[in-house]
C-alpha cells in the first residue's frame, strides 16, 4: 500500500506517494502554484513533453508500447491533438504518469517527470521543488540509519545476553513460594510477576495516581527483557510446562538478562 507524505513548496502543500517503483509527486497539487488557467493536458500535448516522456519510459519501462507512442508523437503539437493522462497510460503502457482515484486521487508523476513538469510552473518553483524533495529524502535516510543502528545495537545486546546465560550457573530465586504457587488469571500477569514481582492489578493499587500501567513506567532494559520473555514463554507453553514451572524459569531469565543489560556499556549509550 502506498504511503503518503507531503512537502511545502512556495507555500503550497505537495503530496508524495511512496510506491513500490518509486516516489510519485502530485501534479494536481503542483498546479495550485501556477498563475492563470493551465491544465496537465496542455503540458501533455506539447511535443517536447511527449519526447521526454518517451525517453524516460524507454529507460525504465520494458513494456512500453513504442507503436502507440510513435502515433502520439506524430500528432503532438497539432492544434487538434489532445490526450489525457489516463489515455496516455492506457495506450502506451506508461508507468511514469498515473491518474489515481479514491483516497489519494489526482494525477501523479514519477519524481523525475514531476521535476520536468515543475519547469512549466516556473523555474523558481522547480528549484524549490527539488530542494524540498531532497530534504525529505535526507530526513528519511537519517531515520532509516537510526533504526538500522538501533537494530544492530539490540542484536549485539541480545547476543551478549545469550553468551552470558551460558556462563551463569546459579540464579537467585527472587520470587517467593507464595508467588510460585499462586494461580494467575492470564499469561500477562505471569510475565509481570516474573519480571516486576507484582501483578498489574496490585501495581495499580500501589500507584493509583499513575495514568498508565506498569509497562508504561518500565525502563528500556525491562521492556527489552519483557519482549524476550514473551517469546521464551511461548516456547515453554509448547513444551507443556505448567504455569508454576514457567514462572520459575521466566524469573530466572529475567534476573539473568537484566544483569546482562545493566552491565552492558553499548546499551547504556542508547538508553541514556
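^ Assign residues to that structure.
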Amino acid at each position: 500500500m502506498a504511503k503518503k507524505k507531503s512537502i511545502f513548496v512556495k507555500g503550497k502543500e505537495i503530496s508524495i506517494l511512496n510506491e513500490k517503483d518509486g516516489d510519485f509527486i502530485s501534479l494536481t497539487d503542483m498546479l495550485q502554484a501556477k498563475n492563470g488557467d493551465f491544465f496537465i493536458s496542455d503540458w501533455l500535448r506539447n511535443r517536447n513533453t511527449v519526447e521526454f516522456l518517451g525517453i524516460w519510459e524507454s529507460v525504465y519501462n520494458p513494456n512500453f508500447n513504442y507503436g502507440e507512442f510513435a502515433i502520439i508523437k506524430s500528432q503532438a503539437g497539432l492544434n487538434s491533438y489532445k490526450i489525457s493522462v489516463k489515455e496516455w497510460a492506457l495506450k502506451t503502457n506508461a508507468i511514469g504518469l498515473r491518474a489515481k482515484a479514491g483516497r489519494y486521487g489526482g494525477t501523479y508523476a514519477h519524481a523525475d517527470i514531476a521535476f520536468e513538469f515543475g519547469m512549466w510552473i516556473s523555474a523558481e518553483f522547480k528549484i524549490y521543488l527539488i530542494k524540498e524533495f531532497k530534504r525529505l529524502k535526507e530526513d528519511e535516510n537519517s531515520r532509516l540509519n537510526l533504526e538500522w543502528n538501533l537494530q544492530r545495537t539490540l542484536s549485539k545486546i541480545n547476543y551478549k545476553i545469550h553468551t552470558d546465560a551460558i556462563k551463569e550457573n546459579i540464579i537467585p530465586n527472587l520470587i517467593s513460594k507464595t508467588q510460585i504457587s499462586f494461580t494467575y488469571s492470564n499469561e500477562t500477569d505471569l510475565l509481570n510477576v516474573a519480571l516486576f514481582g507484582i501483578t498489574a492489578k496490585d501495581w495499580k493499587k500501589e500507584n493509583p495516581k499513575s495514568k498508565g500501567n506498569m509497562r508504561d513506567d518500565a525502563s528500556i532494559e525491562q521492556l527489552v527483557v519483557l519482549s524476550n520473555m514473551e517469546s521464551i514463554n511461548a516456547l515453554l507453553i509448547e513444551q507443556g510446562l505448567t504455569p508454576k514451572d514457567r514462572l520459575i524459569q521466566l524469573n530466572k531469565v529475567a534476573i539473568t538478562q537484566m544483569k546482562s543489560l545493566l552491565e552492558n556499556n553499548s546499551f547504556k549509550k542508547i538508553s541514556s
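Residues 123-167 form the longest helix (45 residues).
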